[in-house]
């Protein structure tokens, strides 16, 4: 085939097949883990990001123009992005979308320009870009393919060149990041992107797919228990009302429209837990109300609905975001924290978190999860604790999207650092910048470790580990290994500089017993009598212990 230009429907079909091939290999990508631990989630994160984009692109039918198909896909991908790989992927497509804005169809030359913009956008999204990752592979493959497109290539030739160089660049990631070579893997995010590119090319060449977005059938078939609200029930919780509205020039100026205009009116109508954001000429709103009709009537003054969903909250629809505790009168800010396990969520709430986003390793929250949590906070300033290095980018992307408050992301890279940051977020302080600086310093001062069981033999930075052993992982790599989780903690402490510490905090996971915790605590108290030892039943999965040294 010789395709000279791609329209919206072809582009959407290409993206769908790219997502299908990625989904097929998601577990393989998850397993491309530097550390021998069963917590890889890159493939899952990228797949869910693509899924969110496709769900948006196909809403109300796929458009003819590539500009509209790309814009819809990008909106969905940006909100669904999770994990560093997912956020970078969403930024790649956001950059591509900017250059397709006025195209009915896109030639190879126009795609080359768009892909180059995708490179710029993705690099700009990462504060300290690391070469040997998806960034490198997308940049090098785009540069090679763009040179071919300049000579009048077809779209197939452009993508063939792009994919060929992506494969070669992927193999070179081991040379750029020695830790990958040592672990015997290539960069997982780059591998995931290659599957997407290959799937897109296959669709362009005529491959048909019966791929269904994961979860979409379940969502359509999920039964609502209508018996939870009977003829004798009284509406107690109201309706969860969500809608997407396209602003129209017949009713307002879409370009200058401020989303606060409508949120103020919805609040006056009794709306609560309002989350509202604007992308282009579309506003998306989530609101809890007892009178959804009045809410919809108010919103329709500015445009027309693309989608509407109204659910009786008495029927028990679950959400990832836990109910928020509104800031008290003495508190000038709100805190949103990521937590894994009910024990950790309860601890963070007790320490002052106003909204908890459920997530962690293997369960990274999306950009939209953060946006919804921000909407639950009645404060002009919101402090966010992502509490995992792979969640920071999604939190930062949400902060850029959300318009209802000033959002400040404290780059806590672990739950232990988040715990440290929360300990200094004291109500009554009015200097928000000083408070954020204090939280960042507190987070950085925590030395954190994670203890779990190895799932394969490995040698990382000279440390040899056998399958089945327990390992303690810190920022510097594998700090210790032993036959039991308790022994791994003790070996790690022996290697650590405990002379500079005052407190040892243990966060016990779901698989640790009361006997294990008591035995470990007693042994630490015996070996380190001058240090205070605190134990919390945090209940996280996979990791037997998180350990914080302060």
How would you characterize this protein structure?
The strands form 5 sheets. This protein has a 6-stranded mixed β-sheet, sandwiched between helices. A 4-stranded antiparallel β-sheet has the order 4-5-3-6. The protein is globular. α4 (66-80) runs antiparallel to α5 and α17 (415-422) crosses α18. The model is unreliable at 216-223 and 317-324 (pLDDT under 50). It has 20 helices and 18 strands. The chain has helices at residues 8-24, 26-30, 42-57, 66-80, 83-99, 108-125, 134-149, 155-176, 178-183, 188-204, 216-221, 259-268, 292-299, 342-350, 367-375, 392-401, 415-422, 432-444, 485-495, 514-527; strands at 5-6, 106-107, 239-247, 272-279, 282-289, 303-312, 334-339, 355-358, 381-385, 406-409, 447-453, 458-460, 463-465, 470-474, 477-482, 503-508, 532-537, 545-549. The protein folds into 4 domains: 5-204, DhaL domain (Serine Threonine Protein Phosphatase 5, Tetratricopeptide repeat); 236-315, Alpha-Beta Plaits (2-Layer Sandwich), CATH 3.30.70.980; 334-426, Rossmann fold; 447-549, 60s Ribosomal Protein L30, Chain: A, CATH 3.30.1330. It is of the alpha+beta class. A hairpin with a 2-residue loop joins β12 and β13 (463-465).
Features:
550 residues, alpha+beta, Serine Threonine Protein Phosphatase 5, Tetratricopeptide repeat, Alpha-Beta Plaits, Rossmann fold, 4 domains, 6-stranded mixed sheet, 4-stranded antiparallel sheet, 20 helices, 45% helix, globular
